[in-house]
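Protein record
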Amino acid sequence: MRLRSLLFVPADRPERFPKAAASGADALILDLEDSVAPDRKPAGREAVAAWLAAPRTVPAFVRINPLGGEAITADLALLRAARPAGIVLPKAEGAASVAALVALAGDIALPPILPIATETPAAIFQLGSYSAVGKRLAGLTWGAEDLPAAIGATTAREADGRYTPPYEMVRALTLFGAHAAGVAAIETVFPRIDAPDALADYVARARRDGFTGMMAIHPAQVAAINAGFTPTPEELAHARAIVAAFAARPDAGALQLDGRMIDRPHLVQAERLLARQA
């Protein structure tokens, strides 16, 4: 399943589901957590169940409510009847939270899990643990909203929109935690829908740093996210040239290509780029 873009949709707004599905997003996240008021969660579950029961072409994840809360029991009942492509697990605190969800689900066949892995202070110290449950995961992502609130910070961002140093650290640890677990590294949302140039810059930085996809909060963001995480024809051609050069000289540790030296790390990067396009 390709996950360049994952678009959030409130679960209690089924009239938005078709527009979200037509946005071009690689997957939807039908949200039963933060975007749905407590008294609207039953209606949200009904809407999600109906959507998942109907034929559809876009994979749909369901963001359930946190473990330990009252709503999780009803969410698991929904997952018993429905068949989402994946589960988004909020307030995750490492591999132990994934294992706890699996245990709580019992005989429910859970789809791949995408933890939001940085929403509590304790979660930060567990970001290296996800490799123990990598086979259960669809990827790993983070958030910059709940954590500042949890520690009393006034903001996670500088005036120009970039993250302050503590949250840059959290972002980097999530990135490395995902790659250590061998799963997709998914960048968190960009909060503005009225700044396309800033969004494009944000996406470019995410891909540059090693993220492979990103979450979105509005259909208008999807095209820029997909474009930013799709290799250009020139990038693909260069990657194929690197692979071909090493295939012709399998005993070489370093080669010259187009006047520049390339070595084995360049080959690994090229192979990963081509694998994501397969």
About this structure: Residues 165-181 form the longest helix (17 residues).
